Amino acid sequence: MVYVAIAITMVVMTISGWMLLEAFKHYELKVSFDTVTKDLLGSKVNLLNNITVYFVGGILLYAYITSSGLILQDVLGLNAKIASASFVLVFSAFVWHSTRAVDRISVVLIAFMILSFVFGAGLAVKVDMAVLFDTISEENAYAPYAMAMLPVALTSFGYHHSVSSMRAYYGDETKAKYAILGGTVIALSLYFLWLFSIFGNLPRANFGPVIEQGGNVDALLKALGSVIESEQVANAINTFSMAAILSSFIGVGLGVF
């Protein structure tokens, strides 16, 4: 059910991004989301739209910043607040510099995520099918959990505030359209690989402590550490997590900026 929910979300969010491109086609190349919304729907709707966009963007940035601080605290032994502040100061520079800088660093980060799973392949190889399909549990109703996951899945593919920036960057709607499709396909593939590896190694009962701590990434990594003995795999998970958080941070940051 989880895989189906994410796949459906990916399709819907890809098509909705293309629809935004269609709306932008009638305006100059460097037009903003704000300008188009105001012109088509009026000032009041535009105000509401801006509030929701910046609210979602702010919440996501807060989540990425705090998660990065907690991971860096465990890895480097830094204070979580100092680590979070350092994270923002260093990597917001890419967003401030240019869309091209975000493009280049995003490619590097995706390569890091792929390599982290290649060198830490033990996580995928050690998948236990009984754990993956939860055959030992008496709980069989998964649809409610899949429905509860939909808001998370929506934000996972929430790139729409950057569509105008992509259009201006590529200088052509067709190139931006393929960029959107490529980005959502890559994201979907990485999500599938992540879910397969996590759900195949961590029993459902072990998710309790993770949920109690607000579902933070560092709590998930600690829970995985209790069932995975390989230090190489643990390092690979940390690398993947940091690369994923950083790529998300600069992507959302670009849209908000």
UniProtKB/TrEMBL annotation:
Task: Give the UniProt subcellular location, in the record's own words.
Answer: Cell inner membrane
The record's listing under InterPro entries reads: Amino_acid_transport_2, MFS_trans_sf, Trp_tyr_transpt
One Pfam entry for this protein is Trp_Tyr_perm
> Does Transmembrane count among this protein's keywords?
yes
Keyword match Cell inner membrane: yes
| Membrane association type | Multi-pass membrane protein
Q: Which UniProt keywords apply?
A: Amino-acid transport, Cell inner membrane, Cell membrane, Membrane, Transmembrane, Transmembrane helix, Transport
Q: Kindly list the residue ranges recorded as spanning the membrane.
A: 6-24, 45-65, 77-96, 108-127, 142-159, 179-199, 236-256
**Family assignment?**
Belongs to the amino acid/polyamine transporter 2 family. Mtr/TnaB/TyrP permease subfamily.
Which PANTHER family does UniProt cross-reference here? LOW AFFINITY TRYPTOPHAN PERMEASE-RELATED
Protein's UniProt name: Tryptophan-specific transport protein
